[in-house]
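Issue 218. Parser rejects a valid record. Input:
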Amino acid sequence: MIFNEVFDYCYHVLRGTAASVRDAYDRKRYNRALLALRCQNYFLGASFQNVTGAAGVIGVGRTQPLERPLIVRGGGVNAIFIGGTGLYFDVPESGAVNLIVERSGPSRMQINRNALRSSHYFSSGEAQYWELDWPQPLVLDPNEVILVTFNQVSACQPNTLYNVGFYGVVVDEKMRCEETLVYDLKQQIVNTIPKPRYIHLKTTAGGGTIVLPGIGNNERAVANTIEVPEHMLILGWRRFMVGMGPHVGVALSTTIRAVVTGGPAFSRIEIPVNAFEYFNSMDAGYFRFAVPHFIPKGSSLSLSITSSITRQQDQFEGEIELLCVTI
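Output the parser choked on:
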């Protein structure tokens, strides 16, 4: 959407008709910034580990209950074999799993009554296409959870872990900022046009990467971005080798939490990395948030990651890239 708006504006600039569309264009930029200030992205996950790999096994995973209402936009599915090699597999190698996605509690609008075939929703490790997006959003009530029933239709490798990730937003009644920030936003909109930005999270010991302190259980590291020179929106992210370490017979438990210095929190709860796909090539796509996240001018994004790793390459090769635009 932002791409199309900026493209149209650039087109009118080159055509010589920018003055007639500038006011409407600036109002969209301003409203988008206010939306980001009133909303916060949430990420939830549900998992099932087939220890035996046999067909016919049924498991149930559930998301974390929240204290606030949550607008759920959609989700996606992936799988990993944790029996010793730690490789991400596509559907033929990881077996077929049918999914039933339901809301907890009586008298609820159910998400699907029939089984969803996982072969329609898996990626092959190169990028998450998020084809579990709903035709329309739905609202989860406080303390309500999403229940995912996994039905192993065909045999898979023993100790295959299936993950379903969901993403959505919560809404604050009031904007979480000072009035002076709103004034600064208006001034930036008047004086500039949006520009694309790519920001990387990296640790002090890493030359552009996220380096964990060692190999072992619950290793923890903190990574930071640069201080942004202008008010910006984070539209999405992609990650590589974060939480990808092989664990013989043990489910991965990598979580991340990100906060903005001098601004609203990026996520109030730990993000379950394993429920979201990773990307292994530069041309792979980004996971885009339900609502952009706002970073004030002069602030940086800090990430704390907790992971259990068994390979040295997983200690040094973690990368998270953020797709951003200026307000």
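Fixed in the parser; the record now loads. The chain has a mean pLDDT of 78.
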